[in-house]
Structure formats: C-alpha cells, structure tokens
Amino acid sequence: MYLFIHRKDLRVADLRAFDYLRSKDAEGIHLLIIDPALTAQGRLTSHSGRNFVGQAASLLHSYAKAGKELHVLYGDPVHVTEALLQSHPIDEVVVHADYTPYARSRDERLQQTVHRLGRRWISIADAPLADLEAFPAYTGRSEPYKVFTPFYRMWSSFIMQSYNPMGITTIHDLNTVREISGRVAVPFALPEQIASALGGTAAVEGSVKSALLLDRFVREHLAAYAASRDAFAEGHTSGLSRFLNTGAISARQAYEATEGLPGAETWLRQLAWRDFYLYQAMYHEDYFRYEHLSDLSALTDKHFGAWASGATGIPIIDAAMTQLNRTGELPNRLRMVTAMFLTKNLLCPFTLGEQHFRLNLSDYDNTLNRGGWLWCSSLGYDAAPYFRIMNPATQSQTHDPVGSYIRRWLPHLAHLSDKEIHQPLSGAIVDLKASRARAIDVYRSIAKQPIVQA
C-alpha cells in the first residue's frame, strides 16, 4: 500500500506520480492535507484561498466522478502522515516536489518521519515544463544560470531534445483505498467551516474549466498573443495562471495544446519564465532571502496603505489595485507597473507588496510572485536595472490609449478625455518625475552595496 499526498497538483490526469504509482500495481490512500500553517490568518477567505478551495473541491468532484476516493484531512502534514503510517500497512509515501522554504522544511520533516518508521519516501518533479532536475547536466555548467536569456536558449534546446510528454495515467487507472482508520480520520477531521466551503463550491472550477479556457485561448487569442497580451483592457491572455499554479492543469498540457501553432513562440517564452523562477528556487538559496542580504533601510512603508487601497491619485495604479482587491485578478503588465511604482516611486520594501499580492491574487504562487517582485525591485538575478522605472501614465497611454480600463474600474473618472484620464490627479501622493529621480538615487546606492553574507 502507498500513500500519495496531493499538493500543487490538483488534477487527476498527467501527473508524474500517477505514472509511477501505476507501475506499482498496488492500492493506495490518496490524500489532500489542509495545512493550518498555510491556511491560517484568513488565507482561506482571501482571493488566493478561495481559488485554492475551488480547485480542491473540483479535485474531490473528479475523484468521485471516477468512482475513486480522495481523503481530505486537516493538520500538520507530518502529524497526519505519521498517524496514517502507524495505522495502515503503507510501505511508501509519494509526493511531487516543491521548492519554497516552507515546503523544503516540511518535506525534510516528512522524509525524516517516513524513514524513522521504516518506509520509503518518493519525491517526483512535476511542476516545471522542463525536467529541471536533469537540466543542469545537459547544460554542462558548473554553476546555475543567473540570467534569463542564456537560460532560455539552453532551455529551448533542452525542450526540443528531451521533452517528456504528458503522462497517460489517470485516476481511473489507480486503486484507491475507500476508508481510513478512525484513529486518523477523527482527530484530523476538517473544521466545519472548511468542510462546508469544500462541499459548497462549484465542481467545474478546476481541470474542466481550465481545459475550456485553454481551448478558447488557442482558438481565439494565441495567434495574436505577441501583439495583444499587454493590451490589459482587452483580456486577450489565457486566464490559466490560477489553474497552473494550483496544478489543476499541467504546464505540459498548456504547452502541447499550442505547440507549433502561430503565436506559440511568445506563449512558450512565458512558460520558460515560469520555469526560470522555479529553477531559481531550486538552485539559488538566496532566492527567498534577498531582503536579508541587502540594506533596504532607506525604504519606508509610508505610502503602502494608499497603494494597497488604490488611493494614490495615479489613475492606472488605482484602477489596477481596485481590480485586484475586488476580484483577485490583475493583468501581468499591470502587475509590473504597480509593483515598480510601489518599490521605486513610493520607495516601499518589495516584501510588503509581495505579501499584499499573496492574499489578493487568485493565482498566487510563492515562487512566481517573488520572482516578479524581485525583478521589479531590481533585486535578485536578472532583475530590471535600478534605473528602469516604468512611468504608469505612459504605460496606460501606450497599452490602453482610450482609457477603457480606467473607466471600467474608476467610473468617477469616466468623464475625462482620452488624454486626461491617464494623467496623475491633482491630489496624487507623489510627483512621477521627482519620485523617479529620487528612486534612481536610492536604488543606485542599494545596487552598489556589497551583498551581506548570511
């Protein structure tokens, strides 16, 4: 008997672990653990939390539709796993690898517990499109890449030569255990609020909906993706990120549906950026601790509240933050614009913006979110140079000349002309030109400082 634990893989097809488990030809307990460390402090009711609950509910529905059993428990994953190993004749625990600091610490504790009880621990890479565990040997480099462009060239070559296609195993091919011991089910039962949320969520939020979105994107938007993806008022992007980041759809499915089609090259580059950030998390230990390695004491949280609530007086910033706070959605171009405005024009530490996105982005992912914030704040590898500071008014004019987006989210400004609607209001909290000059001075100083060795 095996134990398989779902994490960022909330689907029932094309999982590397499923291919492995099918070869074992044994029955297994399939489990999803609601971890208090990741869901406490209002996380489950945030936009990101509600997205997770929706995908988890869809996963339950998919198991039930296939006539299989997914057990959902609440508690510390180590304690839950230990209880199951002590109550069932499980000989191995199988998971997909994760690379965040919390995930690494959790999995180290899990592995120690599994080995202490004399069982096998199997961790299988699944999240990246490329096999990033095999990639370093292919590159022949002694050190990991730090810059995206050479990474992308080698990554593209690796994909062409060594791509491992979607797996053929589905949950239908596996034999799941129907009941688990009451010694586990009772003490780790779901709190009523979480059980109710899982039971009351529409069942089409996950794999079914993501497949429909992918099909529509390929038919309607892929060919023009390179030219239209930054037109944030038009909604020509795929909308798949919140499904990719929970694993409701795999990066392989997103790649194979578009391979060789017009527009696919630009789409593939976006998947490569996703892999690049996962690669950083895997091979650069500083990735999650840059705020501790640089002196950011010149930065302040003075204007953070105005930024977070959409009250800066810069129309495109306030419109974007309004959309984010209300819906959990934010076009990628506006993620860069708002993040760079916070870190540069407002001289606010990137960590505060990162935390705000954590709660408010429906598609929140720790690794990918951090990658974007490090880039915008000129920290980390291959980040934007310290002197690159997007002008939000110019960005708005360039990508939405008639101001449709601002009119949608800030209807009280709809009366302004197409030219006026992009410009800062009279009560704006900063002057764009002056704050840009100040930011260049501050970030030049930060960039010149030696990295603190932890």
Notes on the protein architecture:
- With 454 residues, the chain is of the alpha/beta class.
- Among the domains are: 1-126, Rossmann fold (3-Layer(aba) Sandwich); 286-448, DNA Cyclobutane Dipyrimidine Photolyase, subunit A, domain 3, CATH 1.10.579.10.
- The protein has helices spanning 16-24, 36-39, 47-65, 77-87, 101-116, 135-139, 148-162, 182-185, 192-199, 207-220, 225-228, 241-244, 251-256, 264-283, 290-293, 304-308, 315-327, 332-345, 350-360, 366-376, 392-399, 404-409, 432-448; strands at 2-6, 27-34, 71-74, 92-96, 120-124, 175-176.
- Strands 1, 2, 3, 4, 5 and 6 form a six-stranded parallel beta sheet that branches.
- Helix 19 (350-360) runs antiparallel to helix 20.
- It is globular and about 70 Å long.
- The chain starts with a strand and ends in a 6-residue tail after the last helix.
- The model has no long low-confidence stretch (mean pLDDT 94).
